[in-house]
Amino acid sequence: MGELLGFCVVANVRRETASGEGGLVIRHGLRHFSGGTKLWVLPPQWGDGGEDLLVAGRHRGRRGGYVRMVVPRRHMENFRVRGIYDPAVMRVLTAPGAPGGEVRLWEGREEAEKASAWWSSAVLPARTCGAEGYPHDLGGVGDPPPLELRKDGRIYYLAHFNANRAVYSLLPPPAEAPGPPSGR
């Protein structure tokens, strides 16, 4: 094994990803990466909280080296921290030309482990519509989201979710209506 060049979060592309209107288009992996592909994930670069991340990985249709591009975090799973020993990986991660200038690397293993733990636990943003009619942020939930969410002494009930978010309501789901009477 070569010299340790740094630490990085790595993840795998989800085997199935949802896209399109309402998240109804299901595909194997992504356009540029097959499901299961190992991605080297850089820290958030643009102040968006890490919704979209700059990654390096082996392109699905290209032989050989790595490519770098932006991938939505919701399409990744199995976040963990690994040491970078391959100079080719480091070259791709640090290559110039990122949107907004230079690329920020992880400061160390501890920073990468904190991000990895957070991204592993919170996959979907959770929101509710407040009494005033505007969205209220409830933080993040796993995928699939829980049917009930307790926050600030209140119980929120899952109203809708897709590949992009989970929407909760203070109102419980309606009780099942009785079925038609059985008989002839």
Note the main attributes of this structure:
184 residues; 2 helices; 5-stranded mixed β-sheet; 2 domains
Outline the secondary-structure elements:
Elements: E1 6-13, E2 16-19, E3 25-28, E4 38-41, E5 52-58, E6 66-72, E7 76-84, H1 87-94, H2 109-121, E8 124-129, E9 135-141, E10 148-151, E11 154-161, E12 166-169
Parallel strand pairs: 8-12
Antiparallel strand pairs: 1-4, 1-7, 2-3, 4-5, 5-6, 8-9, 10-11, 11-12
Question: Any overview of this molecule?
Answer:
The protein contains two helices and twelve strands; from the N terminus they run βββββββααβββββ. It has helices at 87-94, 109-121; strands at residues 6-13, 16-19, 25-28, 38-41, 52-58, 66-72, 76-84, 124-129, 135-141, 148-151, 154-161, 166-169. It is elongated. The protein folds into two domains: 6-120, no CATH class; 124-169, no CATH class. The strands form three sheets. A five-stranded antiparallel sheet has the order 6-5-4-1-7, with helices on both faces. With 184 residues, it is mostly beta strands. The mean pLDDT is 82. Strand 5 (52-58) and strand 6 (66-72) form a beta hairpin. 20% of the residues are buried.
What is shown here, in short?
The protein is mostly beta strands and 184 residues long. It has two helices and twelve strands.
What value does the Rg take, in angstroms?
Answer: 20 Å
User: In one word, what is the shape?
Assistant: elongated
Q: Unreliable segments (pLDDT under 50, ≥5 consecutive)?
A: none
Main-sheet strand order equals: 6-5-4-1-7
Could you say how many structural domains there are in total?
2
